[in-house]
Structures are given as structure tokens and as C-alpha cells.
Design brief:
The complex is a heterodimer of chains A (316) and B (665).
Chain A: H1 34-49, E1 56-60, E2 75-78, H2 84-94, E3 99-105, H3 106-112, H4 114-123, E4 127-133, E5 136-137, E6 143-144, H5 168-173, E7 180-185, H6 189-201, E8 205-211, H7 223-227, E9 232-236, H8 245-248, E10 254-256, H9 262-270, E11 275-282, H10 289-292, H11 300-312
Parallel strand pairs in A: 1-2, 1-3, 3-4, 4-8, 7-8, 9-10, 9-11
Antiparallel strand pairs in A: 5-6, 7-11
Helix pairs in contact in A: 1-6, 3-4
Chain B: H1 43-46, E1 50-53, E2 56-63, H2 69-83, E3 86-92, E4 108-115, E5 126-131, H3 134-142, E6 146-155, H4 164-178, E7 183-187, H5 189-193, H6 204-215, H7 220-230, H8 236-256, E8 259-262, E9 272-276, H9 277-287, E10 292-295, H10 302-311, E11 318-321, H11 325-337, E12 342-346, H12 348-364, E13 368-374, H13 391-396, E14 405-407, H14 412-428, E15 432-438, H15 439-443, E16 445-449, E17 496-498, H16 512-531, E18 538-539, E19 544-551, H17 555-567, E20 572-577, E21 579-581, H18 587-591, E22 594-601, H19 622-631, E23 636-639, H20 648-663
Parallel strand pairs in B: 1-8, 2-5, 5-6, 6-7, 10-11, 10-12, 12-13, 13-15, 14-15, 19-20, 19-22, 22-23
Antiparallel strand pairs in B: 2-4, 3-4, 9-16, 14-21, 18-20
Helix pairs in contact in B: 2-6, 2-7, 3-4, 6-8, 9-10, 9-14, 11-12, 17-20
Chain lengths: 316, 665
């Protein structure tokens, strides 16, 4: 994501922002919820990038994770279930200079709002789109989501989820004009931060799936991976997210993957026998919708003149 | 040329044409289309054509889809407007893109009603019809769209077609039509056009236009200009060929027809625009300073975005075609939240899909304009046909209590101005404004006074000056509920907007007192807006036996019917509402001056003589529901859902029967 337009900056150019400049209401997620890690990483990112709170908007849908904007001290838009992406697109079409972050759950992104996920990916509007994926509907108390593992029991599918889980990374990589597709995990804060930073710095629509545990309903899904870093492959490349120094020893499996290689990315994503974290694909050369549609502003008098010319064609 | 079997006498119109002896070509009885059979003679016999003078006349041009009847009708309408006639043009549209040829359901074309003075609606039945085959003509006949004494001109190539089935269809159709007593004239369109073009299918429309130009004595230079304009994007030889076909039709008519119709231009065409309601809404949006139209294609609303697609970029505006109806309104809301002037355009099924976002716009007080170009419903309904059945959905379709503004322009001209009003209200009151038009306004074409554009309509950039510390994002004025918008980018205004119940600080709040208070604030704004509205004007006398109340596109037809009834001495007036929420003030007082009040609408209502229907279970017209609830007056209704605009003659009948049975009692 590009940096803020300096022309629109307030007078106080030298103001330095600290963590508490970004802290909103106290987070009320369950203890142990992965959302806390994402919130911390996002606040750290804003400090690191020194983003002006008034020029930053967090847009969310509905669900546990969508309370996110309330816990930030930026502008926030806590709208409708599944509909964060169109709202964010509207904001960027008018104000491409604003830093826009979208926070969605798995229900938001790949279920009720799946159409918007496909098309927002294709629009490639410059923003960070985080899918906080805990594989379950938490706020409504444990219903199967599209990413619930097959066989996993829930209140709506007590005999176990009937179908294989949807693979959001593989699917996003299949969408034309996808420009940044990454996966990270809430229990690896250094990687989470590095991934969000790469997403923010990407020029275009940066889709980040954050693997998460819900301590109440899906605590067990990633238990083995949390305990055993051997189960995880870190995608490593200077153009993606280089494996952070602090993690190189703990996570011994590094896969050298050039994020410009789309077919390799698709193969890596399709193989669900391993958990792979990092940037699958990244291409900044793709068209961005808000840039394509950008037009110069006109004065009111100009518009009246042009409108009169247009109306002349309908004059009797 | 075939002579008529029977000549029916009267030209039906709002008022009978006045005799004008000064015109040497006038027949003595100008009300008579043809006095009697023998009055119709060939030109060879009389040496000149009979001229019928009338204050108004309705013409239809119908063909299979793709044969250009609409171009013919539109050109005829535009030329008539430019000559100073009142004009109302409406499309006759099949629901399918390419219906099978020669099928009654595929009838496509235009109805053009012209008058000496302003024409406000499509009229009753047509007086003249040019048909490119007998099946589409039959379709109009079966829809009761043709006046008893109408002149019908029909392509006769089908009579001698090589396909035996077609010849049989022709014979059967002509028998059915012949029985109705119309004056049918066979025209060898194909044969004539082939003298100019190789493919007559592409040329009959201009030939037909030539015939109409002769019959109505249209200015041929203007017509040639209009054709050149219509084909300006095509090669020059196309215009030239069309001019040839036009002249061929004119010459054929001069040679073979013996009746002309004189509807004198009685208006000044100075400073007048001609367009349809969707175009007017599009231009209105530009005049209102709108910067974004977010939409998803849906009939009959889409052509607003076609018009904007052509011009909006010149003003820095964008048409965002979203992936679906929900995303369209979502993008508009996101843009509006960040300070852009955005609106969305849709029709019934799309309005349903947008419902949740409309509720959010109300709850979070994000300004938004939605244009609902109504079509027949429920569900997919009648996509290309007019109806006014979205009213209650637009008013109350959002779950929860969602006070917002609903407006309805009544004319094509008002489609333009409504956009300017809607934007101002949306921003001033931080509210949702639904502008309801319909397929009749959307596709009807009418001249109207050219508006003098005001730069002030463009509005000013929203206030983005720093917010003083401690000022809440919903700093509701206790009396009015109004508050300043906090737009992203504004220093000091950081907060999280939410669709959840919230307090003045936009903090999620489930406390009962807070929900009561914020509901009150959102509702109060409607009362404040209502206090700025003027009581509606009564058309006709201020009191009487019957008051007809309408909304939206029916205004012209209702007022024409009222005029006819008042001319007969019936004590009837009408009233047309532009605001449905909040409603214009003073209705109860106005209603109290009439013995009976009834609505006339294009939506469904039960009638009391239907099986099982009682006063208690009767489903009424949608405006009638609303007026009864708001005024406690026993408002009756008459409604129809025929998939076409109401005819003034039908409303006239309703007025007569209601005054004689109810009102005067």
C-alpha cells in the first residue's frame, strides 16, 4: 500500500505516533483468541509506518474479528456481514490516499461475501485485506464455515462437516488480476507482523489469510502445528516475506519460492498436506482499478459549461 | 389500396377538435375521421386528400424486434417536438431480445402521442398504426390498443408470401382485424424499399417515417436533420440512404393516401429539451454534483448508467458497475462515507437485494441516494413494464425501524430536478433518499423546459476542518437530530462507525435508554424535513365530490381524466404527491374538503365485488394503505396492473362511476 499523500497531511508534520495513538477501546475478545495477536501486529505496523490515524480506515464485516476497528483509534467502519470489501472499494475510489485495511472472518470473506472477495481481488484496489480464519463461526456459537476441516463437528453439522474445506489461498490464486496472496499464522507474531508489513507495502490488493485458533470452538485444529514447527513450511524469498531471523532456527523448513511464479504458487497452495506460510504470489505490475478510474476534478462552473453543451444535443 | 369496410366516426381525445373554417383543407366536421364510407375516395377521384383536424393524435409504429420501428417513432416524435407540438413517446418493448419474427408477443416499437398543446401521457388507444407485419398489428388489437376508427397501415408482402403458412396467418389476421371495423390500408413496403436498398428489413422504418411525415405534414428539412443526427455515428452513405427511403415513403403516401391529419403545433419549441426520464435522471445527477453512480445492470433502470457512461467522465464522475446489486450500494456507501457524492440506481429486485445496506445507511446516517426505476413485480415480474408496486417496500422494506426519505418525481422534467433535491436532502439530513420513478417515465420521451443550471447545485466539498477535541461523531442536536458528518481524513474525528446500536460517540451500546434516544434522533430528522415542505396543490377546485390522489408517473393521465370529467360538470379534483416519506403536510385538511378520496395507482388492489373480499380483508393500493394510516380518512382506491401506463379514458370512467355512486351520495 502506498504512503499517505503529504498534501493532505495536517500541519503537525513532526508529530510522532506511538502505540497508544492507535489504541481504541479495550479488546473484548476471549482470552487466547487469535484476534488479539492480529490487533497487536496491526498496531505495531501503524507505529512502524507512522500512519496518521485520521488517514487510516479499518473496515470490517460482522463476526468476532469484525470488532477489530473498535479497538483501533483510527477511522473505522463496522458494517455488514460479508460486505466490508465493497465499502472499502468505495472509500478507495474516492480517497486513494487513505490507508485502508479490511478485517474479515472466514464467514465474511469466503461465505456470505464470497462474491466480493473474488471481485475485489480482480479490482486490485490498493488495500490490505485480512481474512482472520478460525475455521468456524464463533460469534453465533460454532457453526460450520467453508474452511472448517472435513469431518469437524459443529452445531449445524454435528456429524462432522460434510465437505472438504475450501482452500482460500488456492482459490484467490485462481482469480484474474490477483496481485498479492499470502498466508500467516496468529501464533507466530514475528511472521504475522512481517506479512502484514509486506501486504501494506504492496501496491495493490493484498490478500492475507491469517490462520487462527478459536480458543472456545477450534482450539484443537492447529494444536499440532503450534507444538511442532516441523509441520510448517516457510516460503522464503526477498520479494516475499523473508523468514524473520528470530524464526529461522525454530522453523527449520524453508522453501525458496519466487512470488512471481504463479504456477508454482498454485501448486504450493493446492497441496494441503503441509501448512505453508509466506507470500505465495506478488506482482505489482497489474492494473489497479482506482488508478484506472481516476479522473481529474472539475470546478462547478466547468461542469455547468460542459453540462450545457451536453444538453444542447437534446435541445429541441 | 384497400377501402375500409366500415368507417367509425369519432376521434377520441381529451377535448374534441375545434372546427376551423379558415383551413381550406379542413373537413367540415373535424371530429370525424371519415364521415362515411363514400367520403373516402382515392386521390384520383378527389384530386386532393381529406384533412382531419384534431387537437391531438396517437400514432404507433410496430414491427418485429430489430426492424427499427423505434427509430422511426423516436424520429417522428422528435421532429414533432421541434415543430412545436406537444409530444409523449413511449416504447413498446417485448421482454425478449430477439423474439421469434411475426409473433404477437414480439411486437416492438413506439407509441407517439402528439398534440397542439403539452401532452402529459400516452393517451388511450391509438388513432394511427403502421405495422411491418400483420401479427404485431394483431397484438396491438388484442391489447385493445387501437381506436375503433383508427387508420392502420400494414406491410402487405405477407399476403403473397411463398410460405403457405404465412399466407394463411395473414388471411386469418386480416379477417380478425377486418371484423373490428378499422380502416386498413395495405402498403407494399418491401417492394418499394427494394428499389433503394438490397435488404428492405433495414429500410422499412425510414419508409414508414416518410409516410407519417406526409400524413402529418412534418417539416421534411427538420426530419432529414433529425435522421442525420440519429445516424451521426454511422457512415455518411447510411444517412443518405435513409433520406432516400424517407422521401420514397413520402412520395408513396402522396401518391396513394387520401387522408392527412392536422395537429397544429401550438407551442414554442424555444428553450426546450427532449429526452426520456432515465436520461433526465442521469443529467439531473450531473447537475446535482453527483460524482459516482454505482450500479448493477437491471431493466428498466440500466439506461441511466448508459447515459452516464457516455458523459459522466467529462465531469470527473464514474459509473462503477459492481459485481452485484449489494456491492453496488456498498461501494456507493463507502464512497459517500469518505465524502464522495454517490448514488445507486436499481429496480425492484435490486432494491430488495440492497435492503440491508439501506438499513445501514439509515443507522449510521450515511447520506445516500437510491433511484428505483420501478417495473412489474413481485419477483422478476414484468421487467420491461411499468408498475408502482415498490412503494411499501421502499418505505418499509428495511427490517427494524429505518426512517428515511422517499420521493417520487411525477414527470420526466421532475426526474431531472428530483436528483438535485435528493442530494441536498441526503447531505443536509445525513439520510437515505429513495427516488422512485418507473418504466413509464424511464422510457417515455417528452419535451420540457430546459433548466437553467445553477452552480450552487454542485454543492460544496464536505467540511473536513479539524474536529474539536471531545466532540462526538453523532453530536445530535436535541431538537432536530441533525449532526455533522465525520469524514475519514478529518483530523480529530477518528471513530468507528457501526450498524450496531450506538451512542453519540458511535460506541456500541445496548443500553435501552441509548437505543430509545438514537431512534428518536433518527426519526426526528423526518419531522424536521416535513416542516420544510409545502402542502401539495390541488388540481381543480379546492373542494368537491371526489379527490383523486396519485403519485409518480400517473400525474398526466390523472389530470387529463380530471379535465375531461370536469368538462362534463363532474365535481372532481386531483392531488399528486412528490414526497411519500415524510409526507407533504396538510393532507388531512385537504381530504376533509372532499366527499370522497381515492387513489389511482399502478399496483394491485382487490375490489369489493370479488369473491371473499370484504372491507376488512381487502388489499388496497399502496398509497391508499399509507394515506389511510397517516390520515385516518377512509381512502378508497382504483388500481390496475396491466403492464402499461394508465389510460386517461379508464381513469375518466372511474371518476364518473365513483362520483355517481359514492361521492355525491
Amino acid at each position: 500500500m502506498s504512503h499517505s499523500c503529504s498534501l493532505l497531511a495536517p500541519v503537525d508534520e513532526d508529530q510522532e505516533f506511538h502505540l497508544d495513538d492507535y489504541e481504541g477501546a479495550r479488546a473484548r475478545w476471549c482470552p487466547g483468541c487469535g484476534d488479539h495477536s492480529v490487533l497487536t501486529a496491526a498496531q505495531r505496523l501503524l507505529v512502524d509506518e507512522q500512519l496518521k490515524p485520521e488517514e487510516t480506515v479499518f473496515v470490517s464485516g460482522i463476526g468476532c474479528s469484525s470488532r477489530f476497528p473498535h479497538y483501533m483509534k483510527t477511522y473505522g467502519f463496522h458494517g455488514l456481514h460479508g460486505r466490508a470489501l465493497p465499502v472499502a472499494t468505495g472509500i478507495k475510489l474516492h480517497r486513494p490516499d487513505l490507508n485502508v485495511f479490511v478485517v474479515m472472518g472466514d464467514g465474511d470473506c469466503v461465505s456470505i461475501g464470497a462474491g466480493h472477495w473474488v471481485h475485489a481481488t480482480r479490482y486490485n484496489v490498493d488495500m490490505v485485506a485480512m481474512m482472520l480464519d478460525n475455521n468456524i463461526y464463533g460469534l453465533t456459537k460454532m457453526q460450520t464455515s467453508p474452511t472448517t476441516p472435513q469431518g469437524y463437528k459443529s452445531n449445524t453439522q454435528p456429524q462432522g462437516s460434510w465437505l472438504p474445506a475450501l482452500n482460500p489461498i488456492e482459490a484467490t490464486l485462481g482469480i484474474t488480476n490477483a496481485s498479492f496472496v499470502a498466508q500467516t499464522a496468529e501464533w507466530i507474531p514475528a511472521h504475522l507482523f512481517a506479512t502484514l508489513q509486506a501486504a501494506y507495502r504492496h501496491n495493490g490488493f493484498a490478500f492475507v489469510r491469517v490462520l487462527q485458533r478459536c480458543p472456545v470452538f477450534t482450539a484443537d485444529i492447529y494444536m499440532d502445528a503450534v507444538r511442532n514447527p516441523e509441520m510448517i513450511d516457510m516460503l522464503d524469498h526477498p520479494d516475499g516475506v523473508p523468514v524473520p531471523e528470530s524464526l529461522r532456527q525454530i522453523y527449520p523448513n524453508h522453501l525458496r519460492h519466487d512470488p512471481l511464479n504463479l504456477s508454482a504458487a498454485r501448486d504450493l497452495a493446492a497441496d494441503t498436506s503441509r501448512i505453508r506460510l509466506g507470500v505465495f504470489f506478488r506482482d505489482e505490475g497489474l492494473p489497479r482499478y482506482e488508478e484506472t478510474r481516476h479522473l481529474p476534478a472539475h470546478t462547478a462552473d466547468d461542469k455547468i459549461r460542459i453540462l450545457n453543451e451536453e444538453l444542447d444535443q437534446y435541445a429541441v | 389500396m384497400r377501402l375500409p369496410r366500415r368507417a367509425a366516426p369519432v376521434f377520441d381525445g381529451p377535448e374534441s377538435a375545434t372546427a376551423d373554417g379558415a383551413d381550406e383543407n379542413n373537413s367540415n366536421d373535424t371530429r370525424t375521421l371519415v364521415a362515411e364510407d363514400t367520403a373516402v375516395k382515392t386521390r384520383e377521384q378527389t384530386g386532393r386528400a381529406q384533412v382531419i383536424r384534431s387537437t391531438q393524435c396517437t400514432v404507433e409504429v410496430v414491427s418485429d424486434s430489430g426492424e427499427g420501428a423505434q427509430k422511426c417513432g423516436q424520429t417522428f416524435g422528435a421532429v414533432s417536438a421541434k415543430m412545436g407540438n406537444g409530444v409523449w413517446t413511449v416504447e413498446i418493448i417485448p421482454a425478449e431480445i430477439q423474439p421469434p419474427p411475426r409473433s404477437p408477443a414480439g411486437a416492438s416499437g413506439n407509441r407517439i402521442r402528439i398534440g397542439e398543446r403539452v401532452v402529459t401521457n400516452w393517451g388511450d388507444r391509438t388513432n394511427v398504426c403502421i405495422a411491418f407485419n400483420e401479427q404485431v398489428l394483431l397484438a396491438r388489437h388484442r391489447l385493445d390498443a387501437i381506436e375503433d376508427d383508427a387508420i392502420l397501415l400494414v406491410e402487405n408482402m405477407w399476403a403473397t408470401h411463398s410460405d403457405e403458412d404465412i399466407r394463411a396467418e395473414w388471411t386469418a389476421a386480416m379477417e380478425e382485424l377486418g371484423g373490428a371495423g378499422y380502416r386498413i390500408i395495405e402498403v407494399p413496403m418491401e417492394q418499394e424499399c427494394l428499389t433503394v436498398v438490397d435488404n428492405a428489413r433495414k429500410g422499412k422504418n425510414m419508409f414508414a417515417l416518410g409516410i407519417l411525415c406526409w400524413m402529418f405534414d412534418r417539416d421534411m428539412d427538420l426530419t432529414r436533420e433529425q435522421i442525420a443526427h440519429a445516424f451521426r455515428k454511422k457512415a455518411a452513405e447510411i444517412t443518405e440512404r435513409n433520406h432516400q427511403l424517407l422521401e420514397l415513403g413520402y412520395a408513396w403516401a402522396d401518391e396513394n393516401l387520401d387522408v392527412r391529419i392536422d395537429v397544429r403545433p401550438g407551442l414554442s419549441a424555444e428553450n426546450t429539451l427532449v429526452m426520456n426520464g432515465n436520461q433526465a435522471a442521469a443529467f439531473g445527477a450531473v447537475a446535482a454534483g453527483m460524482e459516482m453512480a454505482a450500479m448493477y445492470p437491471i431493466t428498466p433502470a440500466t439506461s441511466v448508467s448508459h447515459q452516464l457512461g457516455e458523459i459522466f467522465y467529462k465531469f470527473g464522475g464514474i459509473v462503477h458497475q459492481a459485481e452485484d446489486e449489494i456491492a453496488a450500494v456498498g461501494v456507493a456507501i463507502g464512497a459517500s462515507y469518505s465524502g464522495k457524492v454517490a448514488f445507486t440506481i436499481t429496480s425492484g429486485p435490486g432494491l430488495a437485494l440492497k435492503t440491508e445496506f439501506l438499513g445501514l445507511s439509515v443507522m449510521a446516517e450515511i447520506p445516500l441516494v437510491v433511484v428505483d426505476v420501478q417495473r412489474g413485480g413481485p419477483s422478476t415480474g414484468l421487467p420491461t413494464k411499468v408498475e408502482q408496486s415498490d412503494l411499501l417496500a421502499a418505505l418499509f422494506g428495511q427490517p427494524g425501524d429505518a426512517p428515511h426519505v422517499v420521493m417520487a418525481p411525477a414527470t420526466i422534467e421532475e426526474c431531472f430536478h428530483a436528483m438535485i433535491t435528493a442530494r441536498r436532502i441526503a447531505e443536509t439530513f445525513r439520510t437515505l433518499v429513495v427516488v422512485m420513478t418507473d418504466a413509464n417515465l424511464a422510457t417515455g420521451v417528452q419535451p420540457f423546459p430546459r433548466p437553467t443550471l445553477d452552480p450552487a447545485w454542485q454543492g460544496s466539498a464536505p467540511d473536513m476542518s479539524a474536529i474539536p477535541e471531545g466532540k462526538p461523531p453523532y453530536d445530535w442536536d436535541e431538537a432536530t437530530g441533525l449532526s455533522r458528518r465525520f469524514i475519514p481524513g478529518t483530523p480529530g474525528g477518528m471513530h468507528t462507525l457501526t450498524g450496531l446500536a450506538h451512542d453519540g460517540n458511535s460506541r456500541v451500546a445496548y443500553a435501552s435508554a441509548i437505543n430509545q434516544k438514537s431512534s428518536e434522533m433518527r426519526s426526528r430528522k423526518m419531522a424536521v424535513l416535513q416542516s420544510t415542505l409545502r402542502p401539495p396543490e390541488v388540481y381543480g377546485a379546492e373542494s368537491g365530490d371526489l379527490l383523486v390522489v396519485g403519485w409518480g408517473s400517473t400525474k398526466g393521465a390523472i389530470e387529463e381524466a380530471v379535465d375531461r370529467a370536469r368538462a362534463e360538470g363532474v365535481s372532481v379534483s386531483s392531488l399528486h404527491l412528490r414526497f411519500l416519506s415524510p409526507m407533504e403536510p396538510g393532507l388531512k385538511a385537504i381530504f376533509s374538503r372532499f366527499k370522497k378520496v381515492m387513489t389511482v395507482e399502478i399496483n394491485y388492489s382487490d375490489e369489493l365485488d370479488m369473491p371473499y373480499i370484504t372491507e376488512e380483508n381487502r388489499r388496497r393500493g399502496q398509497l391508499a394503505w399509507l394515506l389511510r394510516a397517516q390520515t385516518l380518512v377512509d381512502v378508497d382506491c382504483w388500481t390496475r396492473v396491466l403492464g402499461e401506463p394508465l389510460r386517461p379514458g379508464a381513469i375518466h370512467d372511474v371518476i364518473r362511476s365513483n362520483v355517481s355512486k359514492g361521492g355525491a351520495a
